[in-house]
Structure formats: structure tokens, C-alpha cells
TrEMBL record:
Organism field: Pontibacter indicus
UniProtKB keywords: Membrane, Transferase, Transmembrane, Transmembrane helix
Family matches, as InterPro entries: UbiA_prenyltransferase
Name the UniProt record assigns to this protein: 1,4-dihydroxy-2-naphthoate octaprenyltransferase
Transmembrane regions: 12-35, 42-61, 88-119, 140-160, 172-191, 212-232, 238-259, 280-297
GO cellular component: membrane
Taxonomic lineage: Bacteria, Pseudomonadati, Bacteroidota, Cytophagia, Cytophagales
Origin superkingdom: Bacteria
Length: 298
């Protein structure tokens, strides 16, 4: 007896692909960074925050962005994205609702922060508002909300008091997170200039050009790293400096090598190299902050 095909399952499976849940790994460094510099949080709350952000919130934002972009070329994490259908919008609404529900169980204030994040991410993508088409505004929105705001949101959801997380040096660490996002965000756009231009989205990378994007990214990442190392030294955390420099050395090597190759051949600025840069930087920085987190227990 042949199995009965259920068309809607295939449609939702295809839509789920566009939510790009595995792509959330590229945003993990902010989570580990937030925990690595904090004390007094609750482990089960921190674990719940991880799941809410990486399994629900980020995929919901990805899905909503895909719903409005309707990309035909490669996007972050997908070389050949499936066709956008109404089922994708249904999943976005479901993920939004679940993320808010679970967030509220942790803390009403955390749920409010998650709601604000979701609203801003929709304003970034929605065709009627489309913050994405404004290079400076979109960069500020993404770097602040995926950087410092998420950094503080992780700590808030993990049980820290808001008065504590807004005080220095924690607020300075949040700025570091924003600077890191400011450097990495334009790199995610660098291979999509043609498609963004055709859609009318004047991204920061499109405005800067390929070489300008590399220079801007290098300056922002370098400034963030310098500030972070300065904060570690101020707090007497020499081991944190060593761990950070050791773990991020592969990022520096790959980035400079990619810049050199791209300077000689613009064809090196492509989907594969961009995704490889994302993977190297995300995994190495996550490892650095995870090890620094473990140092607190040694």
C-alpha cells in the first residue's frame, strides 16, 4: 500500500527551510559573550533564553525577512532558497507567538524586550517600511539590536537585574558586542550587491563597495577587539585576553587572506567565501567566550 502524500506537509517543510534555524549559530557569540561577563544568573533561565532566541526569535526574523525579500539567489545559510509561500508567514506568526509566550514565563520585562526585537526586525524587512533600504539606519538597527540590545536581553532573561546590567563595565561590554556586529554585518551583504540594487535596497556594503566594506569591517572589528581587551586588562583578566587572542587568530588570518584575494580578484567575493567567513568567525568567537565563561569556575 502506497503512503498517502499530504501536500501541506511539504509546503510547511519548505517554509521551515526558509526560517534557517541552523543559521542562528552565527548569532551565538553574543549569547556566550553576555554570560561570560556576568555573575548571578540562573542556569536554567540562561538555557531557556538560548532556546527562545536561537530556535524561535532568530528564525522568526529570518523567515519574515525571506517572506518580504523573496530572494531568488543565495542567502545566508541557503545556496538555493525554496520558493516563498504563505505557509512561511504562518510559521513566522507561530514562532513569534511561542517566543513571546515562553519569554513571558521567564519575565514580563524579558518578553517586552523580545517583542521589541521582533517588531524592529519586521520594520527592517517589511516592504511598507523597509529600513533595510537605508544604509545607515539599517546598519544602526541591526548592530544595536543584534549586538548590545541582545547582549543585555540575554542577561535580563537569565535573571540579572536591569539596574545591574546597565551599569559599567557591563554597558561597555554591550558596546563591544555592537561594534563586533557593526563589523560583521556589512560582510554578510558583500556578495549580494547586484540583487540588493535590483530590489532597491541600498545596503551599507553596496554604498561602501567591496573594498570599502572590507576596510569598514576591519576598523569596526579592530575597535571592538581593542575595547574588549582594554576592559579585560582593566578588570585584571589576563587569561581572558590570552584566550580571546588565541581563539580569534584564525578569524584574523582568514579575513586578511580573503581581503588579499579579493583585492586581486573580485570573484573571490562570493557566497561560499562569505559563509566560510561567517562560520569561522562565529565558531571561533563562540569558543573564546565559552572558554572564558568556564574560566570563572576554575
Amino acid at each position: 500500500m502506497k503512503p498517502v502524500a499530504i501536500p501541506w506537509i511539504g509546503k510547511y517543510s519548505s517554509a521551515l527551510t526558509l526560517m534557517r534555524v541552523p543559521f542562528s549559530v552565527y548569532l551565538m557569540p553574543v549569547y556566550w559573550f553576555a554570560l561570560s561577563v556576568a555573575d548571578g544568573y540562573t542556569w536554567w533561565r540562561a538555557a531557556a533564553v538560548f532556546l527562545i532566541l536561537h530556535v524561535l526569535v532568530y528564525p522568526a526574523s529570518n523567515g519574515y525577512n525571506s517572506y518580504h525579500d523573496r530572494d531568488e539567489g543565495s542567502i545566508g545559510g541557503l545556496r538555493q532558497p525554496p520558493k516563498v509561500t504563505q505557509e512561511l508567514y504562518h510559521l513566522v506568526l507561530l514562532f513569534d507567538a511561542l517566543s513571546l509566550l515562553f519569554s513571558f514565563f521567564l519575565s514580563p520585562l524579558f518578553a517586552l524586550a523580545v517583542a521589541l526585537y521582533l517588531l524592529v526586525s519586521k520594520a527592517y524587512s517589511h516592504r511598507g517600511i523597509r529600513l533595510k533600504k537605508y544604509p545607515v539606519i539599517s546598519t544602526l538597527v541591526v548592530t544595536v539590536f543584534q549586538g548590545g540590545f541582545t547582549f543585555l536581553m540575554v542577561q535580563l532573561g537569565s535573571g540579572l537585574e536591569i539596574q545591574k546590567i546597565l551599569q559599567p563595565p557591563n554597558s561597555w561590554f554591550a558596546l563591544v558586542s555592537t561594534l563586533f556586529l557593526c563589523g560583521s554585518y556589512p560582510l554578510t551583504q558583500i556578495y549580494q550587491h547586484q540583487e540588493d540594487a535590483e530590489r532597491g535596497d541600498k545596503t551599507l556594503s553596496l554604498l561602501l563597495g567591496i573594498r570599502g566594506t572590507f576596510v569598514f569591517a576591519g576598523l569596526a572589528l579592530g575597535l571592538g577587539a581593542a575595547l574588549l581587551i582594554g576592559l579585560y586588562l582593566m578588570l585584571g583578566q589576563i587569561y581572558s585576553v590570552l584566550v580571546f587572542l588565541l581563539c580569534t587568530a584564525p578569524i584574523t588570518y582568514y579575513f586578511l587572506n580573503w581581503v588579499r584575494r579579493s583585492w586581486q580578484d573580485p570573484g573571490e567575493v562570493n557566497f561560499e567565501n562569505t559563509m566560510r567567513m561567517n562560520k569561522v568567525s562565529s565558531l571561533c568567537i563562540s569558543l573564546a567566550f565559552f572558554l572564558i565563561l568556564l574560566l570563572h569556575f576554575v
